[in-house]
């Protein structure tokens, strides 16, 4: 590359704005292996502290998109995707993708893996026997055409710059940066060929964005840069102060998705799916109002088509449906313990950050991308915010692959529950739109 990388680092370190050409040259050089990790780390840290303007963020997104292929799709139904910034118990994609497909949308979903306390869709998919998330491009396209949706990991061909930069951010403390998250998400979504995107930005203790202003800033950045890329995009900020649903852990979460697709899902998970599904329907031109979209989603779920598509997708991606259904309610890591209520009252809070940490200690998460995760470890919450709690009753059941992991996770899971005397005020699932 022509520009000296150190000059770009210094420029950003000093708070100056980089040109589109400088950013393109940096990302191109990094992807080609010409810019060493040391310099890219320094640049990422400079961005973390100094930020990027909207013009710089757009240029970074375009440069990352240009680092690989863009999927081309035949004429057909609207290509609408959803992305979540990640949370604890966030299994929404496995319900929403078949739901949106059942409405007649095409959903080409490139998903990620668990990181830190947040879970990852690909790990949940991998927990299903036989399910493959590494798909060749033509296979991915064919499954979207035949089933309506496919879920896969990023391949070397799509946004290689994001794969490299994400792994680098992961080990250099530069994940929680609004412009870097924006470029990472949008470059992938543009590369998969989505025409429209719903973004679920998670806020509070179990999310990257710990405060509402931070989450709103990310939502605004995603909308501005997404529109500049030509995407129709809507963001919502949703609550991640308590885990989503009752299951946290890979196979446990797959089971909860099946419950949800069978009309037996926990209220917060069902509500979030209806809200996000309705926005996808609106962006895809299937409904004019949010309420109309919600009604479409409810009707579809009640009719059972999303469940059929879920199972059709499992088969299409190599999964064994019979085995999956047979494992339901039985596939658990061998060491089990419960957290019980220390006193009577009401559950005031179930801290998502601590539940995520407990799930991580149990073996359901990873500290770095190369870690392996357990499919059968995790926890099931028996009570959430507002539930009455009688002394000695179980609040959560935990499963781990080893006695040591169970012992480490138990006090963390117990600390996640706060018990008080009066029921707390109800909190909405969507906190800002
Ligand atoms: N999800 C992504 O794809 N990228 C980020 O940087 C954060 C969440």
Q: Explain this structure to me?
A:
The chain is 47% helix and 15% strand. The radius of gyration is 21 Å and the shape is globular. It is α/β, with parallel strands linked by helices. The longest helix is centred in the middle third of the chain and has 17 residues, at 212-228. The protein has helices at residues 5-13, 20-31, 37-50, 54-65, 92-103, 121-126, 137-147, 160-170, 178-191, 212-228, 250-261, 267-283, 290-303, 305-316, 321-327, 352-362, 403-415; strands spanning 80-84, 107-111, 149-153, 196-203, 232-239, 247-248, 335-340, 345-350, 378-381, 388-389, 394-400, 417-420, 430-432. The protein has 17 helices and 13 strands. The strands form 4 sheets. A 4-stranded mixed sheet has the order 1-4-5-13, sandwiched between helices. A 4-stranded antiparallel sheet has the order 6-9-11-7, with helices on both faces. It has a 3-stranded antiparallel sheet with strand order 10-8-12. α1 (5-13) runs parallel beside α3 (37-50), α5 runs parallel beside α11 and α9 (178-191) packs across α10 (212-228). The chain has 3 domains: 5-51, Transferase, Pyrimidine Nucleoside Phosphorylase, Chain A, domain 3 (Up-down Bundle), CATH 1.20.970; 80-325, Pyrimidine Nucleoside Phosphorylase, Chain A, domain 2; 335-420, Pyrimidine nucleoside phosphorylase-like, C-terminal domain (Aldehyde Oxidoreductase, domain 3, Alpha-Beta Complex), CATH 3.90.1170. The structure holds uracil. Uracil binds next to α9. Residues 85-86, 112, 166, 180-181, 184-185 line the site of uracil.
């Amino acid at each position: 590359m022509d520009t000296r990388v150190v000059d770009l680092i210094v420029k950003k370190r000093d708070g100056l704005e980089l040109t589109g050409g400088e950013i393109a040259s940096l990302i191109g050089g990094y992807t080609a292996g010409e810019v060493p990790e040391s310099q890219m780390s320094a640049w990422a840290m400079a961005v973390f502290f100094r930020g990027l303007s909207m013009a710089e963020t757009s240029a970074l997104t375009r440069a990352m998109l240009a680092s690989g292929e863009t999927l081309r799709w035949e004429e057909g139904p609207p290509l609408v995707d959803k992305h979540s910034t990640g949370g604890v118990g966030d299994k929404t994609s496995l319900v929403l993708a078949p739901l949106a497909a059942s409405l007649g949308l095409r959903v080409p979903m490139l998903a990620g893996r668990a990181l830190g306390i947040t879970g990852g869709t690909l790990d949940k998919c991998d927990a299903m026997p036989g399910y493959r998330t590494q798909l060749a491009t033509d296979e991915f396209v064919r499954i979207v055409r035949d089933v309506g949706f496919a879920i896969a990991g990023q391949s070397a061909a799509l946004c290689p710059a994001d794969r490299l930069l994400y792994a680098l951010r992961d080990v250099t403390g530069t994940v929680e940066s609004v412009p870097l998250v924006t470029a990472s998400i949008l470059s992938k979504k543009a590369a998969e060929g989505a025409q429209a995107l719903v973004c679920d930005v998670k806020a509070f203790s179990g999310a990257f964005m710990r405060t509402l202003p931070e989450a709103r800033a990310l939502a605004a950045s995603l909308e501005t840069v997404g529109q500049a890329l030509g995407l129709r995009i809507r963001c919502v900020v949703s609550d991640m102060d308590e885990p989503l649903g009752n299951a946290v852990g890979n196979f446990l979460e797959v089971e909860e998705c099946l419950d949800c697709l069978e009309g037996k899902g926990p209220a917060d998970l069902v509500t979030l799916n209806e809200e996000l599904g309705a926005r996808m329907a609106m962006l895809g031109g299937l409904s004019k109002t949010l309420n109309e979209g919600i009604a479409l989603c409810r009707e579809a779920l009640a009719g059972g088509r999303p469940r059929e598509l879920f199972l059709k997708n499992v088969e299409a991606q190599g999964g064994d449906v019979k085995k999956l259904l047979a494992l339901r309610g039985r596939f658990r890591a061998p060491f089990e313990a419960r957290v019980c209520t220390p006193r009577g009252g009401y559950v005031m809070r179930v801290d998502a950050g601590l539940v995520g940490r407990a799930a991580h200690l149990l073996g359901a998460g990873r500290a770095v991308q190369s870690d392996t995760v357990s499919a059968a470890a995790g926890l099931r919450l028996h009570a959430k915010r507002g539930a009455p709690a009688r002394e000695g009753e179980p609040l959560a059941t935990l499963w781990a692959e080893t006695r040591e992991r169970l012992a480490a996770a138990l006090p963390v899971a117990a600390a996640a529950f706060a018990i008080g005397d009066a029921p707390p005020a109800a909190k909405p699932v969507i906190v800002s739109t």
